UniProtKB/TrEMBL annotation:
Substrate binds at R74. InterPro entries: Haem_peroxidase_animal (IPR019791), Haem_peroxidase_sf (IPR010255), Haem_peroxidase_sf_animal (IPR037120), Oxylipin_biosynth_metab (IPR050783). Pfam families: An_peroxidase. It comes from Malurus cyaneus samueli. This is Prostaglandin-endoperoxide synthase 1.
Amino acid sequence: AAPTGSSGGWLGWLLSGHLPALSPPAEFWTRLHNLLRPSPAFFHFILTHFKWFWDIINSTFIRDTLMRLVLTVRANLIPSPPTFNSDYGYISWEAYANVSYYTRVLPPVPDDCPTPMGTKGKLQLPDPQLLAERFLMRQKFNADPRGTNMMFAFFAQHFTHQFLKTSGKMGRGFTKALGHGVDLGHLYGDNLQRQHQLRLFRDGKLKFQVVDGEVYPPAVTDAPVHMVYPSGVPKEQQLAMGQEVFGLLPGLCVYATLWLREHNRVCDLLKREHPTWSDEQLFQTARLILIGETIKIVIEDYVQHLSGYYLSLKFDPELLFGYQFQYRNRIAVEFNQLYHWHGLMPDSFIIQGQEYSYKQFIYNTSMLMDYGVEALVESFSKQKAGRIGGIQTINTNILHVAIGVIKESRQLRLQPFNEYRKRFGMKPYESFQELTGEEEKAAELQELYGDIDALEFYPGLLLEKPHPKGLFGESMVEIGSPFSLKGLLGNPICSPEYWKPSTFGGEIGFEIVKTASLEKLVCLNVKKCPYVAFHVPDAEEQHSPRAGGSSTEL
């Protein structure tokens, strides 16, 4: 009889030339598949090398085929419908239906486990303050090797704050961003009352103020929304924006101003095309157009830059028509944890040659109008951002944020880092030295955690050795990109029911979406077009597709 117990027995039969009477066990095919399957690192290497080859591919139909493959393979890693949340570690109707929760890819570590991380590691996790100060706090600024700039850093922060809004009142596993995706709640407000306070109710437009002939967000005296500002800032100097925390940084105010101008510009175009339309229809259609513009810019400028791929990425919802795909999304706790990229922030901010400390920059309410959008865009585009991944990358001024993320992950009982690597198709690390690529800090981590399988999710993502010339390491790419792409293409406007000219006010609106770019967002809304990109002018990435490919996140 043919042996059936092991793949070794089957190999013997295959080599001897005899065919067994029975089919090989499933374990055999699994092992063979895993043996032959290229690693994520292999795919990353191919996609970030051989530019001459990708220049040919990008001009053929193969580009569409590969883009469809990227989208489907990545998106299929995200459970849809959602499965768990922080109160339900098993399938339940509540976990599915209650959108006040962030979802979860992996259920929480059960309360009755012998250690905080399950069965491995020590009985007590390391002190978060100690972890942050010893392994995360920056000793010396390390610029991203591919030239990522502050225009990129502020875009990341501005964009993600529409769907990453943890509810402090309800608890860490809850969100205030009930749209769970790209809904532009950070421009229009996350509820109807806030939206109405920001709207002009004329020609579909948002409220604004004009200073020295330039359009800016209104003051809270004219648009009485709740904004977070220090008590000493007069109401007249507080800008009213869709997201209540955007007054924190001038970089966030720049993007809020650009999108405000873009919304009102689009309303003017729609009004000209449809003179009989009501204020409501103009507003709602402009919002859909701006959602489309955002997704286009994120995929073809932002993710292109992150990926560093020579494959030219493409936003075309029709690539997925006729394929199985669910047009809905739920933001996950893991995505929220992962997207704390404070290593991007520099040690100081340089505006037209003038250096500003954190104390001078944060809540600086006059900088936006003193310098103007053009000057700030150019300055942000020319200042290098820091590297996210690797040891000791976060400026001391914002280290408290990382400490908060670690504490939150413990409250939510996130599973160990290696469990997430396995869940997203990667080989678990066998040692801290393999993780960090060095010995000294690896030995300290071993002493603190006791076992690589007890390493926490967020520290693992940050301390993993970065890709060569990359912003961060393999895990941030392989775990982050499925969440990102599912959220972008799962938007309703990408569905066959929505993706048509009539949704966007006719061909004029459809064309705005299809041709959107970071450069157009800026240059159509300022008087003189400055240098604008997600990389500094002399970065080597300027030769990659669309002059904007840089580091690692597809």
